[in-house]
Amino acid sequence: MKIDLVNLDELCTVVNRELEALGISVPDGRTASVVTPRNVRYYRTIGLLQPPSRSGGRAEYSREHLDEIIEIKKAQHEGITLEQLLEIRKRDWAIRP
Tell me, what DSSP letter sits at residue 80? Predict the structure, then answer.
């Protein structure tokens, strides 16, 4: 699916549609399958998600953000915690030249 730059609410709507289409759910009670603006802000705060671009003071999210959130939810679906995912990504980032 092609998306242009979208705001936070639109990003969550698109992510949730794609998660549903992919059949990705997070079954345990610790975390919901549905992505909310609060989730996205948290992913940014802990370093799992790149900051959005800004235009006129508004945050704009791209396809890369959508893909990153889908990957986060896939990892959670497989039982990987956000803390574990952050450690994996930190190791991957350290290896990149």
Answer: -
